[in-house]
Design goal:
α1 packs parallel to α13 and α7 crosses α11. This protein has about 500 residues and is an all-alpha fold. The radius of gyration is 22 Å and the shape is globular. The chain has one domain: Sodium/glucose cotransporter. This is Sodium/proline symporter. It catalyses: L-proline(in) + Na(+)(in) = L-proline(out) + Na(+)(out). InterPro entries: Na/Glc_symporter_sf (IPR038377), Na/Pro_symporter (IPR011851), Na/solute_symporter (IPR001734), Na/solute_symporter_CS (IPR018212), Sodium:Solute_Symporter (IPR050277).
Length: about 500
């Protein structure tokens, strides 16, 4: 084993030990009940909330998918960053404070399906079951997408097999998630968010310096292909809408908005928003600049880059000392693992509260619920590994499908459940089903335009899904009567508490 590999492995080993250590610490700190395991006792501070939400949001997509998109298509990729920034800001503004208050008012709801059922007094359990199915379905795909990033990392940078990367990445995540629950996930997310931020600042700075500065890099990219500098190159209005529509997804991502349910107080939300948005903007700019500099660097060094999504890995290998390279590779793992752990916990929480307890053991004691949650973490992880077994899977494509599914199924439902008291259970069911089915049909239905272009290539599936879901919510709610008196009272209580 050469010195570079040894140095890299030392840094990665240290990172893995820290993550597992945090999981063990959290195990002894949390209460052994469902609220402690699944929401950390609703006691997260604003900084942990913000970086935990950001780290679990971005995943390996931030360090692999987005730089790869900038590398391949140029500055048109900026439209995604603009849409994401706007969506995240509005999520903090509209959803965060209301969801924190309303989930506690609505019978102390612990999971998103739990909130939907309590918000709409759904005695039939239809809302809970359908939303749990959507979470389990799309999150399994989403988790697989994150694991693809881990496999690529080990294959490209450590000369290990893709499958080894999958199992090692999943194994470490399962260790700290299994024992430490939500508190461990949030604490590790905070540390991982700091690592990711450092990486997204230092890598593009060193890359641009090596290339002679921003001006020289821009000239080099222009010489390669001038269209890479055109923000509207090859873009129609529909294309720009599709890229910016990524921001719509934030309102319906359970692994992100669950952080809002766990924050210590609604009064902490503005502080969390300022921290979270600052972290996000810096990280997105760093990711885009990494891809931009990468195009010039590959040309300068005359290397062959088969997969644009590995450009960050190229920089870690050739521009940094082995120990620093290991730290930067840990940043990719941080991005990947923070998302996987959050997704595993959300799915296991849903399987425990919305499947096991609802259908098999309604009187399950708290300790048994926690045990079922831990078993669920293992099961979902194994299934996701099997789905991620194809090394040719695109991180960006897999993430975009799951992101669209959640955004359309839950986004309008979450927004209107928190802002429109007239919304009822029937409207909620209709909106969720219509949103999810629209995305599935749009992506996998095999429909094309007259010129053969697939629908999802023409317009991102979240757009029609979000629109049709919103229409279904309004139409069905208006046609099927108003909410019950108990629901009206809860909504009024939520509004009153927000004003305090």
């Amino acid at each position: 084993m050469n010195g570079i590999s040894s140095g890299v492995l030392i840094s990665l080993a240290a990172y893995f030990l820290v993550m597992i250590g945090i999981g063990v610490y959290a195990y002894f700190q949390q209460a052994n009940d469902s609220e402690g395991y699944m929401l950390g006792g609703r006691n997260l501070g604003p900084a942990v909330t913000a970086l935990s939400a950001g780290a679990s949001d971005m995943s390996g997509w931030l360090l692999l998918g987005l730089p790869g998109y900038m590398y391949s298509d140029g500055v048109v990729s900026v439209w995604i960053a603009i849409g994401l920034t706007a969506g995240a800001f509005l999520n903090y503004l509209i959803v965060a404070p209301r969801l924190r208050v309303y989930t506690e008012v609505a019978n102390n709801s612990i999971t998103l399906p739990d909130y939907f059922a309590n918000r709409f007094e759904d005695k039939s359990h239809m809302l809970r079951v359908i939303s749990a199915i959507v979470i389990i379905l799309f999150f399994t795909v989403y988790t697989a997408a994150s694991l693809v990033g881990g496999g690529k990392l080990f294959e490209s940078s450590l000369n290990m097999s893709y499958s080894t990367g999958l199992w090692v990445t999943a194994g470490v995540v399962v260790c700290y998630t299994l024992f430490g629950g939500f508190l461990a996930v949030s604490m590790t997310d905070f540390v991982q968010g700091v690592i990711m931020l450092f990486a997204m600042v230092i890598v593009p700075i060193v890359a641009f310096t090596d290339l002679g500065g921003i001006s020289a890099t821009t000239t080099a990219v222009s010489n390669i292909d001038p269209t890479l500098l055109n923000i509207t190159q090859g873009m129609s209005v529909i294309g720009i809408i599709s890229l910016m529509a990524w921001g719509l997804g934030y309102f319906g991502q359970p692994h992100i908005i669950v952080r809002f349910m766990a924050i210590r107080s609604p009064k902490d939300v503005p502080t969390a928003r300022n921290i979270g948005m600052s972290w996000m903007i810096i990280s997105l700019i760093g990711a885009l600049m990494t891809g931009f500099a990468g195009r010039a660097y590959v040309q300068k060094t005359a290397m062959t880059l088969d997969d644009p999504e590995t450009i960050f890995l190229v920089f870690t290998q050739f521009l940094f000392h082995p120990l620093v390279s290991g730290f930067l590779l840990a940043a990719i793992l941080a991005a990947i693992m923070s998302t996987i752990s959050s997704q595993l916990l959300v799915v296991s929480s849903s399987l425990t509260k919305d499947v096991y307890q609802l259908f098999f053991d309604r009187e399950a004691p708290e300790a048994r619920q926690v045990l079922v949650g831990r078993i669920s973490v293992i099961v979902v992880a194994v299934v996701s590994i099997l789905l991620a077994s194809d090394p040719n899977s695109s991180v960006l494509d897999l993430v975009s499908n799951a992101w669209a599914g959640f955004g359309a199924a839950f986004g309008p439902l979450v927004i209107f459940s928190l802002t429109w008291r007239r919304m009822n259970r029937n409207g909620a069911v209709a909106g969720m089903v219509v949103g999810a089915l629209t995305v599935i049909i749009w992506i996998y239905g095999g429909f094309t335009l007259a010129d053969g272009t697939a629908l999802n290539s023409w317009l991102f599936a979240i757009v029609p899904g979000f629109i049709l879901s919103t229409i279904a919510i309004f139409a069905v709610s208006i046609m099927t009567g108003g909410p019950r008196a108990e629901v009206e009272q809860q909504f009024t209580e939520m509004e009153t508490l927000l004003k305090k």
